[in-house]
Protein backbone atom coordinates (compact mmCIF):
# COMPACT_ATOMS: atom_id res chain seq x y z
CA UNK A 1 0.00 0.00 0.00
CA UNK A 2 1.36 3.40 -0.98
CA UNK A 3 0.85 6.32 1.37
CA UNK A 4 -1.41 9.15 0.24
CA UNK A 5 0.22 12.42 -0.69
CA UNK A 6 -0.48 14.97 2.06
CA UNK A 7 -0.14 18.73 1.53
CA UNK A 8 -1.06 21.31 4.16
CA UNK A 9 -2.37 24.24 2.12
CA UNK A 10 -2.79 26.29 5.30
CA UNK A 11 -2.64 25.48 9.04
CA UNK A 12 -6.33 24.49 8.81
CA UNK A 13 -6.55 23.02 5.29
CA UNK A 14 -5.23 19.69 4.00
CA UNK A 15 -5.03 18.35 0.47
CA UNK A 16 -4.96 14.55 0.25
CA UNK A 17 -4.20 12.74 -2.99
CA UNK A 18 -5.11 9.11 -3.35
CA UNK A 19 -2.07 7.14 -4.59
CA UNK A 20 -1.94 6.30 -8.28
CA UNK A 21 -1.03 2.76 -7.26
CA UNK A 22 -4.46 2.36 -5.63
CA UNK A 23 -6.47 3.81 -8.54
CA UNK A 24 -5.35 5.46 -11.76
CA UNK A 25 -7.77 8.38 -11.24
CA UNK A 26 -5.73 9.46 -8.17
CA UNK A 27 -8.42 11.90 -7.00
CA UNK A 28 -7.72 14.78 -4.64
CA UNK A 29 -9.64 15.13 -1.37
CA UNK A 30 -9.73 18.23 0.82
CA UNK A 31 -10.09 18.45 4.60
CA UNK A 32 -11.03 21.83 6.09
CA UNK A 33 -10.93 22.38 9.85
CA UNK A 34 -13.09 24.89 11.75
CA UNK A 35 -13.61 25.63 15.42
CA UNK A 36 -16.84 23.61 15.54
CA UNK A 37 -16.40 20.93 12.89
CA UNK A 38 -14.41 19.82 9.87
CA UNK A 39 -15.48 19.35 6.26
CA UNK A 40 -14.12 16.57 4.06
CA UNK A 41 -14.72 17.06 0.34
CA UNK A 42 -14.86 13.65 -1.40
CA UNK A 43 -13.73 10.22 -0.20
CA UNK A 44 -11.80 8.79 -3.14
CA UNK A 45 -12.06 5.91 -5.56
CA UNK A 46 -11.94 2.81 -3.35
CA UNK A 47 -13.62 1.43 -0.24
CA UNK A 48 -10.64 -0.77 0.62
CA UNK A 49 -8.73 0.70 3.57
CA UNK A 50 -5.84 -1.63 2.80
CA UNK A 51 -5.46 0.01 -0.62
CA UNK A 52 -6.07 3.62 0.39
CA UNK A 53 -5.99 4.26 4.14
CA UNK A 54 -8.70 6.92 4.13
CA UNK A 55 -10.03 6.37 7.67
CA UNK A 56 -6.57 6.19 9.22
CA UNK A 57 -5.45 9.27 7.28
CA UNK A 58 -8.43 11.36 8.36
CA UNK A 59 -8.00 10.23 11.98
CA UNK A 60 -4.30 11.07 11.96
CA UNK A 61 -4.75 14.50 10.36
CA UNK A 62 -7.59 15.34 12.74
CA UNK A 63 -5.57 14.31 15.78
CA UNK A 64 -2.66 16.43 14.56
CA UNK A 65 -4.88 19.47 14.08
CA UNK A 66 -6.54 19.03 17.48
CA UNK A 67 -3.14 18.88 19.20
CA UNK A 68 -2.38 22.28 17.67
CA UNK A 69 -5.81 23.63 18.59
CA UNK A 70 -6.48 22.51 22.17
CA UNK A 71 -9.21 25.13 22.67
CA UNK A 72 -11.57 23.03 20.53
CA UNK A 73 -13.46 21.15 23.22
CA UNK A 74 -16.07 19.07 21.39
CA UNK A 75 -15.29 15.35 21.46
CA UNK A 76 -15.69 13.53 19.24
CA UNK A 77 -14.78 16.45 17.02
CA UNK A 78 -17.52 16.53 14.33
CA UNK A 79 -16.75 15.76 10.69
CA UNK A 80 -19.07 16.42 7.76
CA UNK A 81 -18.31 14.34 4.67
CA UNK A 82 -19.62 15.98 1.50
CA UNK A 83 -18.85 15.50 -2.18
CA UNK A 84 -17.97 17.59 -5.19
CA UNK A 85 -20.26 15.26 -7.15
CA UNK A 86 -21.56 11.70 -7.10
CA UNK A 87 -19.31 9.82 -9.53
CA UNK A 88 -17.85 6.63 -8.12
CA UNK A 89 -14.24 7.85 -7.88
CA UNK A 90 -15.35 10.58 -5.43
CA UNK A 91 -17.75 8.67 -3.18
CA UNK A 92 -16.36 5.12 -3.06
CA UNK A 93 -14.68 5.67 0.30
CA UNK A 94 -17.91 6.67 2.08
CA UNK A 95 -18.35 3.26 3.79
CA UNK A 96 -14.94 3.66 5.44
CA UNK A 97 -16.22 6.71 7.33
CA UNK A 98 -19.87 5.72 7.83
CA UNK A 99 -19.34 4.34 11.34
CA UNK A 100 -16.78 6.90 12.46
CA UNK A 101 -17.80 8.69 15.70
CA UNK A 102 -19.06 12.22 15.20
CA UNK A 103 -19.21 11.84 11.43
CA UNK A 104 -22.10 12.92 9.19
CA UNK A 105 -22.24 11.65 5.61
CA UNK A 106 -24.05 13.91 3.15
CA UNK A 107 -26.10 11.99 0.60
CA UNK A 108 -25.16 12.03 -3.05
CA UNK A 109 -28.44 12.66 -4.87
CA UNK A 110 -29.42 16.21 -5.84
CA UNK A 111 -32.32 16.08 -3.37
CA UNK A 112 -30.02 15.02 -0.52
CA UNK A 113 -27.47 17.72 -1.32
CA UNK A 114 -30.18 20.37 -1.59
CA UNK A 115 -31.73 19.30 1.71
CA UNK A 116 -28.51 19.07 3.72
CA UNK A 117 -27.09 22.45 2.70
CA UNK A 118 -30.47 24.16 2.66
CA UNK A 119 -30.69 25.28 -0.95
CA UNK A 120 -34.00 27.06 -1.60
CA UNK A 121 -33.29 27.83 -5.27
CA UNK A 122 -31.20 25.07 -6.82
CA UNK A 123 -28.80 25.44 -8.49
CA UNK A 124 -28.80 29.24 -8.79
CA UNK A 125 -28.43 29.94 -5.08
CA UNK A 126 -25.16 30.04 -3.14
CA UNK A 127 -25.51 28.92 0.48
CA UNK A 128 -23.22 29.48 3.45
CA UNK A 129 -21.94 26.54 5.48
CA UNK A 130 -20.23 27.34 8.78
CA UNK A 131 -17.43 25.26 10.26
CA UNK A 132 -17.11 27.59 13.23
CA UNK A 133 -15.14 30.82 12.63
CA UNK A 134 -14.76 29.59 9.07
CA UNK A 135 -17.37 29.89 6.32
CA UNK A 136 -17.57 27.84 3.14
CA UNK A 137 -19.83 28.96 0.29
CA UNK A 138 -21.56 26.06 -1.45
CA UNK A 139 -22.35 26.79 -5.11
CA UNK A 140 -24.67 24.66 -7.23
CA UNK A 141 -22.68 23.17 -10.10
CA UNK A 142 -24.55 20.59 -12.23
CA UNK A 143 -23.53 19.92 -15.82
CA UNK A 144 -20.77 17.39 -15.31
CA UNK A 145 -23.04 15.50 -12.89
CA UNK A 146 -26.52 16.41 -11.56
CA UNK A 147 -25.59 16.80 -7.86
CA UNK A 148 -22.28 18.61 -8.41
CA UNK A 149 -21.35 21.58 -6.25
CA UNK A 150 -18.30 23.80 -5.84
CA UNK A 151 -17.01 24.86 -2.43
CA UNK A 152 -15.41 28.27 -1.85
CA UNK A 153 -13.33 28.57 1.29
CA UNK A 154 -13.22 32.18 2.42
CA UNK A 155 -10.22 31.55 4.68
CA UNK A 156 -7.83 30.47 1.92
CA UNK A 157 -9.56 31.94 -1.14
CA UNK A 158 -9.63 28.51 -2.78
CA UNK A 159 -12.55 27.45 -4.95
CA UNK A 160 -12.75 23.64 -4.84
CA UNK A 161 -14.24 22.84 -8.24
CA UNK A 162 -14.35 19.03 -8.35
CA UNK A 163 -14.46 17.69 -11.91
CA UNK A 164 -16.19 20.81 -13.24
CA UNK A 165 -12.90 22.67 -13.78
CA UNK A 166 -9.49 21.00 -13.46
CA UNK A 167 -6.26 20.52 -15.41
CA UNK A 168 -7.56 17.60 -17.44
CA UNK A 169 -10.67 16.39 -19.25
CA UNK A 170 -13.72 18.56 -18.65
CA UNK A 171 -16.52 16.14 -19.43
CA UNK A 172 -19.73 18.03 -20.27
CA UNK A 173 -22.75 15.78 -19.81
CA UNK A 174 -25.45 18.48 -19.82
CA UNK A 175 -24.30 21.38 -21.97
CA UNK A 176 -26.93 23.91 -20.86
CA UNK A 177 -26.40 23.20 -17.16
CA UNK A 178 -22.62 23.15 -17.51
CA UNK A 179 -22.61 26.55 -19.24
CA UNK A 180 -24.90 27.94 -16.55
CA UNK A 181 -22.54 26.60 -13.89
CA UNK A 182 -19.47 28.21 -15.48
CA UNK A 183 -21.33 31.51 -15.82
CA UNK A 184 -22.44 31.21 -12.17
CA UNK A 185 -18.85 30.62 -11.05
CA UNK A 186 -17.67 33.62 -13.06
CA UNK A 187 -20.28 35.83 -11.39
CA UNK A 188 -19.20 34.51 -8.02
CA UNK A 189 -15.53 35.07 -8.84
CA UNK A 190 -16.20 38.64 -9.95
CA UNK A 191 -18.24 39.61 -6.89
CA UNK A 192 -16.27 41.89 -4.53
CA UNK A 193 -17.28 39.74 -1.56
CA UNK A 194 -15.58 36.59 -2.88
CA UNK A 195 -11.85 37.07 -3.54
CA UNK A 196 -11.10 33.81 -5.35
CA UNK A 197 -7.35 33.22 -5.28
CA UNK A 198 -7.23 29.91 -7.17
CA UNK A 199 -9.22 26.87 -8.24
CA UNK A 200 -8.40 23.33 -7.19
CA UNK A 201 -10.20 20.51 -8.92
CA UNK A 202 -10.23 16.81 -8.17
CA UNK A 203 -7.72 15.43 -10.71
CA UNK A 204 -4.62 16.29 -12.73
CA UNK A 205 -4.46 14.82 -16.24
CA UNK A 206 -2.61 17.51 -18.23
CA UNK A 207 1.12 17.31 -18.84
CA UNK A 208 3.28 20.41 -18.59
CA UNK A 209 3.41 20.47 -22.39
CA UNK A 210 0.60 22.85 -23.40
CA UNK A 211 -2.44 20.98 -24.69
CA UNK A 212 -0.99 17.49 -24.14
CA UNK A 213 -3.07 15.27 -21.85
CA UNK A 214 -2.35 11.91 -20.26
CA UNK A 215 -4.90 9.36 -21.52
CA UNK A 216 -7.33 7.67 -19.10
CA UNK A 217 -5.71 4.76 -17.28
CA UNK A 218 -2.25 6.35 -17.09
CA UNK A 219 -0.44 5.39 -13.89
CA UNK A 220 2.77 7.36 -14.39
CA UNK A 221 2.46 11.12 -14.88
CA UNK A 222 5.98 12.46 -14.28
CA UNK A 223 5.45 15.84 -15.96
CA UNK A 224 1.92 16.71 -14.90
CA UNK A 225 0.69 20.26 -14.43
CA UNK A 226 0.17 21.60 -10.91
CA UNK A 227 -3.37 21.18 -9.61
CA UNK A 228 -4.02 24.86 -8.85
CA UNK A 229 -5.52 26.96 -11.65
CA UNK A 230 -5.87 30.75 -11.83
CA UNK A 231 -9.37 32.26 -11.52
CA UNK A 232 -9.23 33.44 -15.15
CA UNK A 233 -9.40 29.78 -16.25
CA UNK A 234 -13.18 30.11 -16.00
CA UNK A 235 -13.15 32.57 -18.90
CA UNK A 236 -11.09 30.09 -20.93
CA UNK A 237 -13.64 27.34 -20.25
CA UNK A 238 -16.51 29.59 -21.34
CA UNK A 239 -14.61 30.44 -24.52
CA UNK A 240 -14.07 26.73 -25.20
CA UNK A 241 -17.80 26.14 -24.80
CA UNK A 242 -18.43 28.86 -27.39
CA UNK A 243 -15.97 27.20 -29.77
CA UNK A 244 -17.61 23.80 -29.27
CA UNK A 245 -20.95 25.31 -30.31
CA UNK A 246 -23.74 22.77 -30.76
CA UNK A 247 -21.58 20.09 -32.34
CA UNK A 248 -22.30 16.71 -30.67
CA UNK A 249 -19.17 15.11 -29.27
CA UNK A 250 -17.10 18.28 -29.69
CA UNK A 251 -13.57 18.26 -28.30
CA UNK A 252 -11.73 21.53 -27.68
CA UNK A 253 -8.08 21.44 -26.64
CA UNK A 254 -6.65 24.24 -24.55
CA UNK A 255 -3.32 24.67 -22.82
CA UNK A 256 -4.59 23.60 -19.39
CA UNK A 257 -7.66 21.49 -20.15
CA UNK A 258 -9.51 19.50 -22.81
CA UNK A 259 -13.26 20.15 -23.08
CA UNK A 260 -15.20 17.03 -24.11
CA UNK A 261 -18.91 17.09 -24.95
CA UNK A 262 -20.55 13.82 -24.01
UniProtKB/TrEMBL annotation:
Coiled coil: none annotated. It comes from the Bacteria. GO terms for molecular function: hydrolase activity. InterPro entries: Metallo-B-lactamas, NDM-1-like, RibonucZ/Hydroxyglut_hydro. Pfam families: Lactamase_B. SMART domains: Lactamase_B (SM00849). Keywords: Hydrolase. Residues 26-203 form the Metallo-beta-lactamase domain. This is MBL fold metallo-hydrolase. It comes from Leifsonia shinshuensis.
